[in-house]
């Protein structure tokens, strides 16, 4: 009988590249293993890189904040979003039913540095805010597309078309107001933000007109005498609200001379021109813009359907 062949010695296999990345803590009793990147996380060069990256991010954030504050004051903007649930409900009721509200003047108080300023919307119902205009602006866009969907005419283009039209109306309105204030020598520290806030309240009336007309007309849109009646009421309510509220922005009793810091009384002729401008903006301009926005859902639906076909 032949003897069995001799046993060949086992060759040592090199450790796997992936296996070398892990510690042998499992063999020491722990059952867990952790990646070993050659001490990369503890390397001074890596820590220095992290510090440089952190400094770059902070420097970029400071640059953005400085450039934003160059055009819009962040603390002043926060003032317009200082609202409460009670204020929001009361303000919506005031925008829709402004007929018997008194007084319309805004309340003021002395700040810690001795300056006189207006109370935030949370503490003063007559103070303009941006929470309701922004929410109404977004709600108007979503509602317009929702109504189009209920009619079976929804298209993705409706969102962009409706948002572009609404945004263009607001921008054009603000530019017109600023031009009128410049020509009439009306100056106010918070004038721009006040005008932006007041220009957005019209969307509340438009939303109510669209919803009520859609419900009463059985999904046939905002046309007919019912739709026009609801639209006329919301337009008149919004115009009366703006006429009373903007009186203290566009028709101040005194005007400040920015170059000298002195106060002087507005002349009667200048005040008459400001009154005419306020009436023109509150009724004529608002009627045109509200009519465009209230008819925008139907027009956008037709355009989207035409593109889809």
Keywords:
309 residues, 10 helices, two-stranded antiparallel ribbon, 60% helix, two-stranded antiparallel sheet, 4 strands, mainly alpha
Please trace the helix and strand order, writing H or E for each element.
Answer: HHHEEHHHHHHEEH
Mean of pLDDT: 77
How much of the sequence lies in strands comes to under 5%
Biggest sheet details? 2 strands, antiparallel
Taking the alpha carbons of the first and last residues, their distance comes to 93 Å
Q: Number of DSSP helices?
A: 10
Radius of gyration: 32 Å
Overall 3D shape: globular
Helical proportion?
Answer: 55-70%
Strand order of the largest sheet: 1-2
The total of beta strands comes to 4
Unreliable parts:
14-34, 256-264
Based on secondary structure, the structural category is mainly alpha
Explain what the structure shows.
About 25% of the residues are buried. The radius of gyration is 32 Å and the shape is globular. Mean pLDDT is about 75; it is low at about 15-35 and about 255-265. About 60% of the residues lie in helices and about 5% in strands. A hairpin with a 4-residue loop joins strand 3 (about 255) and strand 4. Helix 4 (about 130-150) runs antiparallel to helix 5 and helix 5 crosses helix 6 (about 190-200). With about 300 residues, the protein is mainly α. The chain is built from ten helices and four strands. It starts with about 45 loop residues before the first helix and ends with a helix.
């Amino acid at each position: 009988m032949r003897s069995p062949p001799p046993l060949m010695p086992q060759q040592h296999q090199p450790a796997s590249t992936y296996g070398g990345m892990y510690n042998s803590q499992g063999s020491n009793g722990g059952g867990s293993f952790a990646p070993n990147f050659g001490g990369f996380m503890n390397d001074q060069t890596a820590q220095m890189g992290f510090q440089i990256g952190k400094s770059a991010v902070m420097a970029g954030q400071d640059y953005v904040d400085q450039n934003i504050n160059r055009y819009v004051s962040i603390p002043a903007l926060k003032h317009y979003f200082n609202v409460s649930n009670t204020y929001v409900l009361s303000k919506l009721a005031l925008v829709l039913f402004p007929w018997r509200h008194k007084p319309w003047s805004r309340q003021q108080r002395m700040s810690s540095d001795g300056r006189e300023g207006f109370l935030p919307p949370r503490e003063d119902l007559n103070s303009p805010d941006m929470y309701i205009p922004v929410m109404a602006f977004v709600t108007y866009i979503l509602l317009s597309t929702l109504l189009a969907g209920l009619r079976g005419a929804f298209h993705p283009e409706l969102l962009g078309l409706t948002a572009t039209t609404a945004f263009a109306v607001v921008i054009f309105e603000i530019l017109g107001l600023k031009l009128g204030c410049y020509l009439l020598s009306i100056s106010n520290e918070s004038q721009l933000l006040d005008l932006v806030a007041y220009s957005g309240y019209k969307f509340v009336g438009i939303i109510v007109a669209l919803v009520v007309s859609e419900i009463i007309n059985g999904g046939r849109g905002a046309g007919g005498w019912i739709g026009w009646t609801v639209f006329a009421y919301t337009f008149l309510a919004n115009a009366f609200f703006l006429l009373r509220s903007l009186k203290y922005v566009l028709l101040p009793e005194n005007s400040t001379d920015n170059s000298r810091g002195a106060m002087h009384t507005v002349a009667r002729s200048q005040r008459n021109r400001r009154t005419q401008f306020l009436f023109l903006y509150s009724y004529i301009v608002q009627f045109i813009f509200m009519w465009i926005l209230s008819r925008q859902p139907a027009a956008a639906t037709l355009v989207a359907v035409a593109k889809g076909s």
